[in-house]
Each structure stands twice: as C-alpha cells, then as structure tokens.
Design brief:
Length: 105
C-alpha cells in the first residue's frame, strides 16, 4: 500500500476530503520526524513506539580501496509495535493448512 492508497482509504471510511487527510498525514509524519530528531520517543498505546536506537562506533571497510573506515556512533529511527498490534497481525497472517487428498475442507 502506498501513501496515496492510504489517503484514499481513510477518506472513504471517514468522509473527510482527501486533501485534508493528506495534510493531516503529512503533518503527522513531520511531527514524528521532528520529535525523533529532537531525541524524544513517541509512544502510542495499542499501536507501538517510534524510538531512536543508538548504534555503537565501529570499524567498517571500504571494499573498493580495501581500507578500514571509522564509523562513529549514531542514532537511527525504529518502530516497535505494541503487543496488541503484533497479536492482531499474527491472527490475520496465519495460514491455514490445505486439506490433504481425500479430506474435506
């Protein structure tokens, strides 16, 4: 699903014009980025957490020049889904086994 598809679905389900949904969605994305860039995490009960993870400094390798490169410690954004969210997705994704030959469905 792309952002345009998401905007269309939200618009259809709520009756809010697509332009308003797009502006709201873009504002939400911007706030998530700004908040994480400011070093603060976002916790949404029942959905998940947008957090920053610290990556330790390490030595990498430039394979073209075959030299060691120092990679400083840095932070990366991450999403950790809530337990309820994970459980709901697991329920939907479970694949039911096909009945074997001679078995009824």
């Amino acid at each position: 699903m792309r952002k345009a598809d998401l905007v269309n679905q939200i618009s259809e389900k709520t009756g809010i014009p697509k332009v308003d949904v797009l502006v709201t969605l873009e504002t939400m994305f911007k706030e998530v980025k700004d908040t994480l860039a400011g070093g603060e995490n976002i916790y949404i009960r029942g959905f998940g957490s947008f957090i920053t993870k610290k990556r330790a400094a390490k030595i990498g390798r430039n394979i073209k020049k075959n030299i060691a490169v120092h990679i400083p410690e840095h932070y990366i954004p991450a999403f950790k889904p809530a337990k309820e969210f994970v459980a709901e997705v697991k329920k939907l994704v479970e694949i039911k086994p096909d009945p074997g030959p001679g078995e009824d469905a």
